[in-house]
Specification:
alpha/beta; Cobalt-precorrin-4 Transmethylase, domain 1; Methyltransferase, Cobalt-precorrin-4 Transmethylase, Domain 2; five-stranded parallel beta sheet; five-stranded mixed beta sheet; elongated
């Protein structure tokens, strides 16, 4: 291995992916940068256990979590510029991967506007960690030739064309979808997705408190309420996960035929 050296270029920010929460899923590069940082700006979902890797650093908590009070994005960008211009070795630590719903594009724009160099260090996204927890592939050569990573919590006024996605033959990996589960469900059904399409929601993927809730599109909203599904959770929808979803359902003592029947009954009752 090459010896590591502290960067000599001033005014540089490292935009680092912390992974989904399990410290062992952090990359070696991310761990090294944390050990060398002067300042670490950390998100709520980045995993506080990682702070043991940077005892020398000044840690600034810039919490961002859906549905909770968050640090304004503009304030975070100003902090990044300020700390870099002060000559500090700055790590911006984000949950998952910086480029997947991490608003890293906005931070890059702010750094470029201030003529500050930056480097992106990838991390394992929660969607991939959810698939690993389920023990499933997100693609399948017969059922899904691709994956769509989506957020149910976009900018104000922004709308995702869920109806088009219902017929796209893709596995849908939905972030921040718990508060909008009923809208997600109705939009996909209206788009033509089948009632018995398998759905698995993974809460706290990769962490000790992780759990998977197996259901179908027709039963999704009611089952999430009954099981008290909480954020952070990733919702995986599509035919590629059918066999694994059935196995998970059986392991949890569910009758999969009854699950399908309940999906049809619930939607029929809601429409009447």
């Amino acid at each position: 291995m090459k010896p590591t050296h502290r960067p000599t270029v001033n005014e540089k920010v490292f935009l680092v992916g912390a992974g989904p929460g399990d410290p062992e899923l952090l990359t070696l590069k991310a761990a090294r940068l944390l050990s060398e940082a002067d300042v670490v700006l950390i998100d709520d979902l980045a995993g506080k256990a990682l702070l043991s890797l940077c005892p020398q650093a000044r840690v600034i908590h810039v919490g961002k979590r859906g549905g909770c009070q968050s640090t304004p994005q503009a304030f975070i960008e100003k902090l990044l510029v300020h700390e870099a211009r002060a000559g500090n070795f700055v790590v911006r630590l984000k949950g998952g991967d910086p480029g997947v719903f991490g608003r890293v594009g906005e931070e890059i724009a702010a750094l470029e506007a201030a003529n500050i160099d930056y480097e992106i260090v990838p991390g394992i996204s929660a969607g991939l960690a959810a698939a690993a927890h389920m023990g499933v592939s997100l693609t399948h050569r017969e059922h899904a030739h691709g994956v769509a990573f989506l957020t149910a919590h976009g900018a104000e006024g922004e709308k995702t064309d869920w109806r088009a996605l219902a017929n796209a033959a893709l596995t849908l990996v939905v972030y921040m979808g718990v508060p909008r589960a009923i809208d997600l469900q109705s939009s996909l059904l209206e788009g033509g997705m089948k009632l018995d399409t398998p759905v698995v929601a993974v809460e706290n993927a990769s962490q000790a408190a992780a759990r998977a809730i197996t259901t179908t599109l027709g039963s999704m909203h009611e089952d999430f309420l009954r099981e008290k599904l909480q954020s952070p959770a990733v919702i995986v929808i599509g035919e590629a996960i059918r066999q694994r979803a059935l196995k998970l359902a059986r392991s949890h003592g569910c009758d999969t035929n009854e699950m399908r029947a309940m999906s049809h009954r619930r939607v029929a009752n809601a429409a009447s």
